[in-house]
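Recap for those who missed Tuesday's class. We walked through two folding examples back to back. For each one, the amino acid string is listed first and its predicted structure tokens come directly after. Nothing is annotated here on purpose, so try labeling regions yourself before you check the end of the notes.
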Amino acid sequence: MVGKYVTLVDSYVSVNEALKHASASIGRSVNIDWIDSETFNGELNQLDNFDGVLVPGGFGTRGSEGIIDTATYTLEKNIPYLGICFGFQLASIAFGRKMCSLENANSTEIIADTKNPIIDLLPEQKDETDMGGSLRLGANEIKISQNSLAHKIYNSDKISKRHRHRYEFNTKYRDEFLKNGMIFSGESDNGKRMEILEIPTHKFFLGVQFHPEFNSRPGFPEDVFKTFVTAASQN
């Protein structure tokens, strides 16, 4: 797991538990190692020692380049990757830089005047000054494209998942991403927000804007974690 707050034991407890629920459901055990994205120092080849890489949620600029580098490396090396919330956003940036040749692609949360704002503030919140109060919170419905990995995972055309974010994928880049091999297999119910990204040609490269860990229970693993752990166990 590559994240910003890995030195704090309980920072990602829900994600850790979701991984354990998923691994138990397929009769495997999971060994979780934590890598601090801020002190990564470009030593990306250490990721070769892992069966899969998960990037959990987070905010802010600190450690963001380490996560972008991580997503890029898993993309290049065909290592199973699951990005949650911030991990979804920075995977988008990694793909934009690597596969779409979008120079200086970034998030306006990280660089406000970035040349290519792959990730931008939610439109309805650009005039908000209260960061905590302006988050998009709670359960929202998501439409899932048929014949996608996401549809295979959830076996449904629509799901409801919990969210907590202020930034989102900038849809003006959607066609460019599609042309270069990334699809957005999950959208908000009104089709204006991208919720799930995937790369069909990759062993497992999936990002979700929501927080699936909150739907995982012992004996009832959340489906995206179960699929990720299965892919990692076969790597």
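Example two. Treat it independently of the first, because the proteins are unrelated.
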Amino acid sequence: MSSDRQKPPAGSPACGYTNYTEGETPEAFPKTGEGATGIEREVWDALYAVDDPEMPVSVVDLGLIYNVFVEPIDTTDRSQNAPSNRAVIEMTLTYSGCPARELLTNDVKCAAETVPEIADAEIRLRYSPPWNVNMVTDDGRTALRKFGLSV
């Protein structure tokens, strides 16, 4: 075990690799879907239902969602009533080696695909800008405090 790795707050089951120190918050973060309309708004709403697997806070409120956009897909070989859009979700993790990566990205993909107009969702992991605790929304901070973390 590396001595420079920060330990999680005492009594917390939070990931031991997550750095809860403050960093510089990039402009326009956290992203919350504010101002989104139509299908894009529906995707954001679906993402609010996805909690981090280690704590009861939505991935949106944790500041893990960097962008959501909807793009049309080719429906030539599909029925006329089939959904004709793809959701593209750009997101990050609290750290690049997160053991819940597959679970979390699958949950986000599945949530986006619950939107009736979405045929498929693509998850693009980004590590720039790096996540930091300042990207957590006020609601996320409240939930983290209730969970026992000091943020």
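Answers for example two:
The chain has one domain: 1-137.
The domain at 1-137 is CATH 3.30.300.130 (GMP Synthetase; Chain A, domain 3).
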